[in-house]
Amino acid sequence: MTNIDSESWFRTTPQWVYYSFVPVLGGGGLVWAGIKAKVYAWSAIGIGLIVGSIVIFNTPLADLFWLIWGGQIVTAFALKQEFLVRTYPSHLPLPSDHKLAQRVGLLRGKLDINTCSKDELVRIGLPIVYVNDIFVLRESGHIFTDVAELGEIIGIPDQALQRIAPFITFSYNPRQESFTSWRRANSFSAQQLIQVGLTPEVAQKLIAGRETGAYKSIVDITKRTGLPLEALRELL
Fold it and tell me: If one looks up domain 109-172 in CATH, what number appears?
């Protein structure tokens, strides 16, 4: 399954499924699938089918062997899609099918929007233009706190937000929020801002700019106050 994309992945039939057509030993395919997908109950079923086939074949109930063989094949095909979900390559983006995307995404675990990589955000289906904007704000010290904020500040459409919402989470670092990030511009007095290294003129402009509401990011500060980024370096 090399060089396969997210759409064709779920149209493939793993080789172990075909092994189920082999009488008796075909249960080994289920054993392997269980190990690969880390669902060891599947492996137990495979072992049970192998043992059951061998034992029954040498008893007066030998006719039941064919039922076991048929059950082996049916079980393999029944587990095929779940196997593909559980072994979905981590480098591929989430599939376009909403239900499959949710199953794959939840198995991967949630991404922390404040610490994850760009590649991880792209793989859950977020367009790179929004990913880049998220990183611009992250690098300025902004801490995202909820899904709605991604729409309000970044401008991510509601449809895209609904798609990624089940797969993201938001960390919160009170120390970064209050004492070490640009957000000090929202809470520090003029004297405190001067103490961290800003000039009195810059401090006064920051205080004046707060009259229209809290700053949302470093970018918002520069736009609202007209201060260059260099003048705010002590806040970064």
Answer: 1.10.150
